[in-house]
Amino acid sequence: MSDVRRKTEAARTASKRLATAPAEEKNTALETIARTLREEQDSILECNSEDLRKGEEAGISPALADRLKLTETRLEEMARGLEELTRLPDPVGEVMERTERENGLRIEKVRVPLGVIGMIYEARPNVTVDAAGLALKTGNAVVLRGSSSAYRSNARLVEIIRKSLALTPLPRDAVQLVEDPDREAVREMLHSNGRIDVIIPRGGAGLIQRVVRESTVPVLETGVGNCHIYVDRSADPEMAGRIVLNGKTDRPAVCNAVETLLIHREWADHHLHELGEALLTAGVEIRGCPRTRDRFSRAVPAHDTDWEKEYLDRILAVRVVDSLNEAMEHIDRYGTRHSEAIVTEDAEAARRFLQEVDAAAVYHNASTRFTDGSQFGFGAEIGISTQKLHARGPMGLKELTSCKYRVLGSGQVR
Amino acid sequence: MSDVRRKTEAARTASKRLATAPAEEKNTALETIARTLREEQDSILECNSEDLRKGEEAGISPALADRLKLTETRLEEMARGLEELTRLPDPVGEVMERTERENGLRIEKVRVPLGVIGMIYEARPNVTVDAAGLALKTGNAVVLRGSSSAYRSNARLVEIIRKSLALTPLPRDAVQLVEDPDREAVREMLHSNGRIDVIIPRGGAGLIQRVVRESTVPVLETGVGNCHIYVDRSADPEMAGRIVLNGKTDRPAVCNAVETLLIHREWADHHLHELGEALLTAGVEIRGCPRTRDRFSRAVPAHDTDWEKEYLDRILAVRVVDSLNEAMEHIDRYGTRHSEAIVTEDAEAARRFLQEVDAAAVYHNASTRFTDGSQFGFGAEIGISTQKLHARGPMGLKELTSCKYRVLGSGQVR
């Protein structure tokens, strides 16, 4: 039996116990894991140093090394994240709807765990702890598959989580790490129908596309964000500048950062030059359409492919448009349905943009950077869904649950 | 450009108009279609006769011919179904959640259509009208692919629907029928990511498994039901008999019919013989485990494969078990997570069964036949989901929607 098969079956068995675990047991388990993470800090950092050393030998980029690196602060954040989960209400068991039919049948729609979650992710070892915590809180087992570059860190973290679970009534098999981080293990996970209920990929577009293409297990697609800000004719110049700079420079490497700026021609005539200078000063490269470059000569030319790119970097594509309609058509054509914003003082333009633009989150006069579980008040987040089925936008605890119908009768037949 | 490509693109374009269509426009369209169906009754029945004649030439089974056949009554039911949809509330635009954050951002979670639904189904031409009606009501476009045996009937029905739409402000391209009903068209639909948002297969296990295996578009898996009734030690004999007979014989060919009966040994000692006779009288073949046959010699032997079968016929597998746990283990191993029932007077046994059995619908002292949108009070149903993601159990109007977050700011940045 393969490693993946064995672990997914163990997770499936553990998930049955977890599904009926009371909230206190799950919270105690999360606290135990948090405590052990702090106690075992040194051994975790040691394993992480080893990953980093191997990575540097293999010539990984400084950006990747940064994502891979654990520090005392980052470990403390992970432990605190688990403790915060204990303070959130347990979604499992909630009666979502209740009806009594004319024949006397009482029907209750009850929230239940999904079962077994498969996580396939890259680099950041904090996902290991975050995902395990969210899964346990929601009564799900989890099968983790991180990247080879973080293997030692992930293995140590999962060892600690499982050791902690062994101190509680919850089954340690609820958290599994797939051992051989090769592509064959991923392939096997993607076809574990009946043993894994949902696959959540987190990482670059390549990983996510591969998972969507290959998986026969249902997938929660996350994250690719080619986000736009449209600065309308009537936009307040100071506000527009602030939102664009924040959207691009606050954290360029994340999915809710803005990648293309669309500007109404009239606004561009008066304010594009000043905004361009501010962006350059903030270290942003501007790739502009011809009409952008007419108004701001320090922009480099944009190519057609620029409209499709998620730069995840200090680069911004800029296009001047003639109307709200043209802006919305551009977004419809190139957007990834993640986060889209309009800056305008015109209420009717805002209303149309919010209604007609098809995206997980649509903004009026605010930065796209707010598309985030904690900013939305969910308390925790496992990713941002860009699909329409099951979950859309930031996914919190409820998005890791399903439902079942409980029907109570007294002998009814049809 | 292929037929599927052209039609999915036309549907995608139409879906944008539909997404913002007011409830009255959608209801008027449904009424117009219902009226035209009645007016065009003769031409529809003529096309259907042609399908039936070709089918008989090709030697289709009487059961398939019955599913394929349209009558005045069935057409009238289809028209009434559309009219009933107009009386249900429009789910689109509903504000599901609303919060105001400390920074003043107002966040609204709003219900929106899914976009474009792909339906792949077999035989029954009423699905053509039902699916188009449900899609239009929920602001979705739909791409239909029925079976070749019903092609003329489906083509005529879709022609009438599109002709009716042309009399309303809604785009006729909202309803599309894939012309060439070959397997290549299905393959293309299953890979129409970006043009189809969800695929719903309706039909036999073979069709559904093919769709789940091949589709890169998210799938709502429907229907396969290997349903069980467990008659517990303390079950009321009269009630148990009534529920078992109803579950098996009311409509054996549907997914919520019971396929395997599990009986506690002690109940079997006293009542199995009588129940067996009643089932035989009702024309049911009983395939029993050795302990069943010890108690009821007219049962034929069950083979291991019988526990996995969805007979969809007047055949019932029967197994005697020693305990509730053994019954639940059997269901966990062989069930398809559709509908599972316990008959018992023991409240604790009922509580455990309802909590621990993993299925879309779990019943205490009622027939599995109730798993159905209209029985649950949903007013309409597009199928019964046996997956855990997005929708579980009978899927009504809400299950054909997604959501988006509308974020209203006054210049907020992070």
Low-confidence stretches of chain A: none
How many independent structural domains of chain A? 2
Full CATH superfamily name of the largest domain in chain A: Aldehyde Dehydrogenase, Chain A, domain 1
CATH class of the largest domain in chain A: Alpha Beta
Question: What helical percentage do the residues of chain A reach?
Answer: 40-55%
Secondary-structure content class of chain A: alpha/beta
Give the oligomer, counting copies of the same chain as homo and different chains as hetero: homodimer
Please report the two chains with the greatest interface, counting residues with C-beta closer than 8 angstroms to the partner's C-beta: A-B, 66 and 66 residues
Family (chains A, B): Belongs to the gamma-glutamyl phosphate reductase family.
Function (chains A, B): Catalyzes the NADPH-dependent reduction of L-glutamate 5-phosphate into L-glutamate 5-semialdehyde and phosphate. The product spontaneously undergoes cyclization to form 1-pyrroline-5-carboxylate.
Domain Aldehyde dehydrogenase (chains A, B): 2-279
Protein name (chains A, B): Gamma-glutamyl phosphate reductase
Write the layout of secondary structure elements.
2 copies of one chain form a homodimer.
Chain A: H1 3-19, H2 23-39, H3 41-57, H4 62-68, H5 72-86, E1 95-100, E2 106-113, E3 116-121, H6 126-137, E4 141-145, H7 151-166, E5 175-177, H8 183-190, E6 198-202, H9 205-214, E7 227-231, H10 237-249, E8 258-264, H11 265-281, E9 285-288, H12 290-295, E10 300-301, E11 315-321, H13 324-334, E12 339-343, H14 347-356, E13 361-366, E14 383-385, E15 393-395, E16 401-412
Parallel strand pairs in A: 3-4, 3-6, 4-5, 7-8, 7-12, 8-11, 9-10, 9-11, 12-13
Antiparallel strand pairs in A: 1-2, 2-16, 14-15
Domain Aldehyde dehydrogenase (chains A, B): 2-279
Biased composition (Basic and acidic residues) (chains A, B): 1-10
GO molecular function, one term (chains A, B): NADP binding
